[in-house]
Amino acid sequence: MVFQMVLLKLADWILYQLLANSCYRAARKMRSYGFFLKNQSLKSSQQQAPSFPNVFKCGLENRGSDILACDIHGGLLRTESFFPYFMLVAFEGGTELHTVGHYFTGLVSDSGLVLKHRALKDYFGDKKPDIGLGSSSLHDHLFISLCKEAYVVSRDDGNSGTSSVMPRDKYPKPLVFHDGRLAFLPTPFATLSMFMWLPIGVFLAFFRLFVGIHLPYKLALCLGIWSGVDVRVKGCSPSRSGHRKGILYVCTHRTLLDPVFLSTSLGQPLTAVTYSLSRMSELIAPIRTVRLTRERKQDGRTMQRLLSEGDLVVCPEGTTCREPYLLRFSSLFAELANEIVPVAMNTRVSMFYGTTASGLKCLDPIFFLMNPRPSYHIQILEKLPRELTCAGGRSSCEVANYIQRKLADTLGFECTTLTRKDKYMMLAGNEGIVQDKRGKSQSIGK
Fold this sequence. Notes:
The protein is 37% helix and 16% strand. Strands 6-13-12-7-10-8-9 form a 7-stranded mixed β-sheet, with helices on both faces. A 3-stranded parallel β-sheet has the order 1-4-5. It has helices spanning 2-32, 40-48, 72-76, 83-92, 116-124, 138-144, 188-214, 217-226, 258-266, 279-284, 296-309, 364-369, 396-411, 420-427; strands at 68-70, 97-100, 103-108, 131-135, 149-153, 230-234, 248-251, 271-275, 288-292, 312-314, 325-326, 340-348, 375-380, 414-415, 433-435, 441-443. β8 (271-275), α10 (279-284) and β9 form a beta-alpha-beta unit.
């Protein structure tokens, strides 16, 4: 029964594609032979002057509430190939695949690529979208004609910008948060290379984990670099005063491995405070990790106790950020220590991101270490002068904001007031809080 349903669906899809393509080719032939034109002069004039204006004539001022209907192929995608788009959707996106019972047939439920004209009418009804954007092809003209305003993207225009990467300062809004594992455009060749690399990448990831967990610091650092991990360290261990308390290292938060790389680079054991670290990450961590609760008083007592026992690492952003921005720093750390050392950390990957908001966080270190040549750049800044700490009369918020600006300037990043809650609301649709088995709320901190 399942096999018959698959055959019927496949036959229906092939027949539809044949009919759709043949009709489209016939329409193109009729247009090329001049059936839509009265004479050759009118034909040439129509070719020179498209039916709809170029997209450059579309003003974006006061368009915040407008509805935009955009064709993917020829309008939204920078490439004429559908492969990267569908590969990204298949790898990262909840795709609507056709099922028979509990089994996937491998086919998409409905084809909306050729039926975009009908899909637009079914979705909007009598209400027209404000702006329609498509290519200069005939079927796109039919699609965008249903909109109040229609514009075309012409690939013949050398200034169209469809084949170049838009600089960051031209973005309509700053790109601060994004999710997903793939860190490259999944073209056919790049995707094939990724699948060929996977067995080697998995082996490398576990080798690098074993080295970092079981071997001494210097040997682990040497073997990690030998395996392809690019580790660059600037600065040195800070001098210690006569205080009994340990040094508090305040780091930017790029991946789960920030405290591990800092500890390995310094060649000394550190304790890291975390928010809701996965059990797997706790088990494989080569340094001591202590969970916080996001209850200010209780977390303050915990951090005070840890500082009395030794050096401590804290990432006051509370969650990771991939882009060149720093999230708002929590000011709790500034109330607890006078010996504060800011640490600017940055990472680069070429294949997989080592962070996620909606995926399995226990795999974050694995994915990062699966990259052919992941890099960690660590810059240890000078210890904060006493007059810039709470002991010198500054408020905790002033100290936190100063360190955030100092680290941002070092890395060439921008400071923001965005928080962990903002990130998870944008990417995962929740506040980053889950219920544990005992019914208590826990924060997702990575």
